[in-house]
Specification:
The chain has 3 domains: 7-175, Alpha-Beta Complex (Conserved hypothetical protein from pyrococcus furiosus pfu- 392566-001, ParB domain), CATH 3.90.1530; 180-234, no CATH class; 241-299, no CATH class. Helices cover 54% and strands 11% of the residues. It contains 14 helices and 7 strands. A hairpin with a 4-residue loop joins strand 6 and strand 7. Helix 3 (63-76) packs across helix 4.
Length: 301
């Protein structure tokens, strides 16, 4: 099975061959990994002495896929041992909670495990990397997983990106999801709003508007493109804003000029501005009034 970039994260933490690359598919016994070193360390334990890690980043498990895995385990058994750590009176799962859940669903009473000692930091790192490697986390779980690596390990985004084989921008964009309103984050976790939708919503500063649009996304089943179109219609372009601002300034200057000329000439004045030239219209209602305006203008020459 070809290793992905994320596999480097596990290798960086543990150089021993004890850490097996996670696998999602179960296969006939003849294809089971044949590492003697790993087989020697595998133990068969009571499944009810094994418990999940409460700090496990993955919170949601697809019932349909879990049932499929359970059916496979019922037929072939658990071919990939769980990675666990011995606690006082139970084994804590470091990697393999999905297999454990499926095995219980299949009615198994025993399960194969590899017991290893971990520091709290290493335990969390293995769990996070295993889940990230399989790409089984929803966008919000992935975001929280990155956040834990940053806070618990005092790592930078660049270091997280390097360890997980991802780009820094991918890490940064994922972390930004935590800036969305809680209701929107919940909708992302439940798969009602995609990562594409979330990126568009993050372009808004108004959290109330983000929530309103999230409701529309779900209720109207909006595509990402449709959401972008809605925002484009609501938000004027920079060029339009600049044009409107410039036009407003011109109108104000024109009105001030008109008012000044009205005061000087004592009659109605209209100034019309074009692209390259303008026009001034001066009203008069009699020959006498026209002579008065002309005399006024000549006197000011």
């Amino acid at each position: 099975m070809k290793k992905r970039g994320l596999g480097k994260g596990l290798d960086a933490l543990f150089s021993s061959d004890e850490v097996m690359e996670p696998q999602e598919e179960y296969m006939p016994v003849s294809e089971e990994p044949s590492s003697e070193e790993i087989k020697e360390k595998v133990q068969i334990v009571d499944i009810y002495t094994v418990e999940p890690d409460r700090e496990q980043p993955r919170k949601n498990f697809d019932p349909e896929k879990l049932q499929e895995l359970s059916d496979s385990i019922r037929q072939y058994g658990v071919l990939q041992p769980l990675l666990v750590q011995k606690e006082k009176d139970y084994y804590k799962i470091i990697a393999g909670e999905r297999r454990w859940r499926a095995a219980r669903l299949a009615g198994l009473t025993e399960i194969p495990v590899i017991v290893k000692e971990f520091t709290p930091q290493d335990s969390m790192a293995v769990s996070l990397i295993e889940n990230l490697q399989r790409q089984n986390l929803n966008p919000m779980e992935e975001s929280m997983a990155y956040q834990k690596l940053l806070t618990e390990f005092s790592m930078t985004q660049e270091q997280v990106a390097e360890k997980l084989g991802k780009s820094r921008s991918a890490i940064a964009n994922s972390l930004r999801l935590q800036n969305l309103p809680e209701a929107v984050q919940k909708s992302i976790s439940e798969g009602m709003i995609s990562m594409g939708h979330a990126k568009v919503l993050l372009g808004l500063d108004d959290k109330a508007e983000q929530t309103r649009l999230a409701v529309r996304i779900i209720g109207e089943k909006l595509s990402v493109r449709e959401l972008e179109q809605i925002l484009a219609e609501k938000k004027p372009t920079k060029a339009k804003k600049k044009s409107e601002k410039k036009e407003t300034a011109k109108d104000l200057a024109t009105r001030m000029a008109e008012e000044r000329m009205k005061e000087l000439l004592g009659t109605q004045v209209s100034i019309k501005k074009g692209a390259k030239k303008g026009k001034i219209e001066i009203e008069y209602h009699s020959e006498e009034e026209l002579d008065r305006i002309l005399n006024f203008l000549e006197a000011r020459e």
